[in-house]
Specification:
The protein has 315 residues and is α+β, with helices and mostly antiparallel strands. The protein contains eight helices and eight strands. It is elongated and about 75 Å long.
């Protein structure tokens, strides 16, 4: 289950994006800092290392959020928690837009990599390993943390960034639903392997991460089945989305906001058959745009016809 702003501390807002810190972060932080107390001469360095880890995570999540906004999506919330960070992004349902929104996160780590490694190299050549071992160990740890986050996130296991990038690439050739279906199946295999690895090493943290991956894959697998049915469902040829010009699927794919019953909003004219609630607007299941029901009842604009070529004069 993903963390939410409920039970979280609001830290700040940047560019319209609110950043929250989940309460469990403090508990795990206290455990991790005490567990690594022998790495430095002062606990202050342990605290700085832990804060630096989540600074890198925060920059990573801002990469996702700002890239999502760049392609026309919505992103207004980031929650930090012990397993990293979650950027609540909603890119337009296009493979290119989704690919850029996901890839921008690891690209932040790619940019940080030479900077941190360069700092480590300068510290080593300057003799910090003997003259200032705490600072040297800190730079070493932060460089390793950034590299490890980059490598781990790029593993092609859904819902890690690598798995979502793979899904975006498959989207081009398989479609929205089938690409998600294949990616989640790969995610189940990867999550199960990670669970076996946790048992082998006896690591509770790897087990928690594996459980989180498997849980997210189960949610996305159900979503993929719905999307696959939508893609294969017959289309209503008398209505078209004003935003993307796609015709809606025939079937009970819309959920009533009042009684939570699914229904076909076009068959009932925007009225829920269960509770009689009337909806003036409906959402396009293809692009996510919300439009007035009346605006759907027309054909998409036809492209202008190319005028026939003028007859050539005979000589």
């Amino acid at each position: 289950m993903l963390p939410t702003r409920s039970g979280s501390l609001r830290l700040f807002q940047f560019s319209g994006i609110e950043v929250f810190l989940h309460w469990s972060w403090f508990i795990v932080g206290a455990f991790e800092i005490n567990n690594r107390s022998d790495h430095y001469s002062s606990i202050t360095w342990n605290i700085l290392e832990y804060l630096s880890l989540f600074l890198i995570v925060l920059l990573h999540e801002f990469g996702h959020s700002l890239a999502c906004r760049q392609v026309g999506g919505s992103a207004n919330q980031i929650v930090l928690w012990p397993l990293g960070g979650v950027a609540f992004v909603s890119p337009p349902p296009r493979p290119g837009a989704t690919l850029w929104s996901i890839a921008a996160g690891p690209l932040v780590n790619v940019v940080l990599f030479p900077l941190l490694v360069g700092g480590y190299w300068l510290a080593r050549t300057s003799g910090w390993e003997q003259s200032n071992p705490d600072a040297f160990n800190y730079l070493t740890a932060v460089s390793v943390i950034n590299g490890a986050l980059l490598v781990f996130n790029m593993i092609p296991v859904y819902p890690l960034d690598g798995g979502q990038i793979l899904r975006s690439l498959l989207w081009y050739v398989m479609g929205r639903g089938r690409s998600l279906l294949v990616s989640t199946l790969i995610g189940f295999v990867g999550g199960s392997a990670l669970l076996g690895l946790a048992a082998w090493f006896g690591s509770i943290w790897i087990a928690i991460m594996a459980g989180f991956l498997l849980w997210q894959c189960s949610i996305s697998f159900r979503q993929a089945r719905v999307l696959t049915r939508l893609e294969s469902a017959p289309r209503r040829l008398d209505s078209f989305c004003p935003a993307c010009s796609q015709s809606p699927s025939i079937g009970a794919y819309w959920l009533c906001g009042r009684c939570r019953q699914p229904f076909d909003t076009f068959e009932s004219g925007g009225v829920c058959p269960s509770c009689s609630t009337s909806f003036a607007q409906t959402m396009c299941l293809n692009c996510g745009a919300l439009s007035q029901m009346a605006d759907w009842m027309s054909r998409p604009k036809e492209p202008p016809l190319t005028p026939p070529p003028l007859p050539r004069e005979s000589v």
